[in-house]
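agent: user wants the structure for Protein-L-isoaspartate O-methyltransferase from Comamonas koreensis. delegating to structure tool.
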Amino acid sequence: MSLPLNMSPSTDDKYRAARYNMVEQQVRPWSLGDEQVLELIGTLRREEFVPDGLQDMAFMDIQLPLLGDDGEEAIANGHCMLPPRVEARVLQDLKLQAHENVLEIGTGSGYMAALMSRLAKQVTSLEIEPALVELARANLHRAQIKNVDVVLEDGSNAQAIGGSYDVIVLSGSVYEVPAALLDKLKEGGRLIAFVGTEPMMRTTVYTRTQGRLTISQPWDTVVARLKGFAEAPRFKF
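agent: tool returned. relaying tokens verbatim.
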């Protein structure tokens, strides 16, 4: 529907339309069929989780830098939001339940934690960068989301992570998932991570069933690295 020539859309209308187009043109075509996830992606205000001045870029199919003036450097340092279709696909694959407690490693802007908070009981999100901790906390407070705790912590240090979780999400790529982190999964729990190196990484889902881990790798992508995790050993001649 077009607007009369003497009228312009409100900011709310503009962003509502942008979220709708994001879902229909990017997210849904990327093997997304979970209507609950699609509705959530389409209604949670992604534009409110990006730095000032980048609101119009919030719906683009890119990794969006969160810190500093150099976007490439920010992404290289893992200071970015993942593309919307990647976040949506992760959310669909996790099949979160209302009673579940979630651990996220790599908070970023808090957007992924906000999505998961709508489906799970509690989200604890660990972020190694102090400026991103402040950003995420402010974003979640503004969105009136109360079941997410953002903690300044190096998520690669599994010994510093207390308790066990139903779901663990690594919101960035790693060379491999540490065994000590997999040990934090409860029975029936799932861990999802982007594993490998460029030019292609495997989205890997670990599921603990009767004390054993099963592994599936349903799709490929390339996303920024998480800080602190070990890289591939270098060959010596």
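agent: one observation worth passing along. The chain has a mean pLDDT of 92.
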